[in-house]
Amino acid sequence: MTGALSPIDKAKFVAAKRAAEFVEDGMRVGLGTGSTAAWLVRCLGEMVRDDGLKFRGVPTSTRTAELAREVGIEVISLDEARWLDITIDGADEFDADLALIKGGGGALLQEKIVATASDQMVVIADAAKEVEHLGAFPLPVELIPFGWQTTQALIEETLVSMDVMGRNATLRMNGDRPFITDEGNHILDLHLGRIGNARQLAMVLNQVPGVVENGLFIDICDQVVVGFGDGRVEVRDINAGTVTEDRLDFVEDDNLFSDLGD
Question: Active-site residue numbers?
Fold first, then answer.
């Protein structure tokens, strides 16, 4: 129930609730992965159930697909959709230019494919995700399992010439085993501290043999919906150069997310 939510969860909720308003009948919508995106899926499911909203969703992960089906959203593949009207997803960090770090949930490859196959990408985030410089959050890089230690060594060697503060790289684990993405790959988390030139780093990382994709989303995000713990919402449009503010009231008996384990 929203009345029992922490300020961070309230911020995620209002951002998701506001972003859900971008979805219209007949749209093909990319559905992101992560805790904030899960709020969005629940909000959209409520709109499908209570308001008769009709759209088709393209999930960016297996768990998002499962949640979408659970709340009554029609799920299709990207190949079926071919192109999307909008993708709405969370982010681990974003800066003033709406450059992002994504992949904390391990779905960065599908997230980037879906986002770039959309007319627009909208990011939903709590205010704590905004940073002056990207890099405090570890940058995920998806690797094929074959020779991953060699790939890691190549990445660490590459980082020597990059404008970053740190160069430590760690394999993401799931208990005592390597974390496996939906595509059967590994994730290497780069602890960089600060990224001076995100565009350059994104291009260079993807040239390393064994790297599938990295979690830097550059020139992909069009708008960010920032939620605050007191119900305020700020919508920033990088293309129009506009910032609009709103406030959403909490419904104390709203149990939409009471069983959401994020």
Answer: 111
